[in-house]
């Protein structure tokens, strides 16, 4: 360290010793910290003047108060606290809250499903949510930059950035579909009501006829044919090898979505923080209006009763617990780098603990509330067509682009209700897409400092790149590309990323040190519960989910269409490309160290990967053995 520079804070075990500074120079140093029970740890420290630190001392394991990503340049902050809260809520509350949680609740024992859902929410969801908010706020950088606290794990930052980019390739297409439906709703009669349109097939039937007769197995509704034949033009493609050219109608809608995203993000959180005032609040207004209309429909209460019916015997089935754990993992938005990026623009002293509790709770309550809206209309459809509820209950895009439009089409003033519904889908999708893009933009700008001066151009580059790749999803066979991306881009890879993130914070950086950072920000040290969850419960939960994801993997399909082997290989390459960022960067970091540490570390990495493969194989064998009891199932052991 040059003469007159600040001296670092020195750690021994969990005790911190400060050495008095002698000047106000700004330096960046890299320390190699050794703990007997943790092996070797790496951390990069940014040291600033005592005036910049809330306690008057340089901090050796993270940025001090007032640290900025570029020396001499003040980091942007949210205009108002509510801008940040709405952005986090808008990102976390997305289309899956409407089309997945209600169906899972109905399928897995109704109200009984809330038991494993809330259990996993408390032991894993909230702790991980809190961890990411605190991590971003303390270090004030994006998903990659925050790992200056432990550079050997920096690869996980690039993993989550890459995953967010992959998701943007196909998530924007869903918003484009919603926009296409919105434009189509401005008519006297909705185009998915009858079978007399040019896109309809001879199998189209205006009457729902759900029975087991052979003649009805190939019947389809006008709403189903409108989505698959009128919007997607699936009849003009024979599979993923026969995509065709992008359709101009969907391409135009996709371009509009990209333009909206660009002008929402180009100036940073100052602009995006204002957009979410509309996109994050509108869904709640629309859901409330739809619920008030839905409960007045015949059969609505039957649907709501089915949604809330309690069957505690279902808790003996491991799949119920797996579904609950999976929903928690994906519904909160942990692992995409978005929470880290958003919180990095907070003030240093912001109460991130309170924010984590509020926003994660609102997300779960929104999922539960949306179930009343969805099942009031599903109950109405079941009553109107005299079919069992399970014949109309579904999840995924089919719910919001087929079943729900079918229900809306039967209402008086159907065009108005359709416009309201698809505006809700648009706003749900836009702010979630904004979050994903912000994760990529912030993460890369903080890693490559020169990009800070060119945010507008870099944002344009990112959104245009996603637009060009997304064009594959708006071709005649685009739904096959969409399905492949959806299946591989953010499944096992996102679970793997969060697992490595949790291990890096809890076991390498250290829970005690992380708790010190939080106490430095908010003046309150995390309690024993949070520290235990971070160090033991959450990593074990995530390891379990990674193993389950591998062991229960099924190749993607769309209806009766099965993807060829080469398509699955492309999908796996996509998933692996993001996951390999972790070991590749770790190997690079270790191999650049002096001595023989590189050789030892490579052996350790090999042993870890072999162990994970072995556990996956054993778990796959365990869950495939038939059993009628609760206890023998590995999935039940997490209770």
TrEMBL record:
This is Transporter. Residues 49-72 are annotated as: Disordered. The lineage of its organism: Eukaryota, Metazoa, Chordata, Craniata, Vertebrata. GO terms for molecular function: metal ion binding; symporter activity. GO terms for biological process: amino acid transport; sodium ion transmembrane transport. One of its GO terms (cellular component) is plasma membrane. It comes from the Eukaryota. The gene is SLC6A3. Belongs to the sodium:neurotransmitter symporter (SNF) (TC 2.A.22) family. Signal peptide: none annotated. It holds the Pfam family SNF. It comes from Salmo trutta (Brown trout).
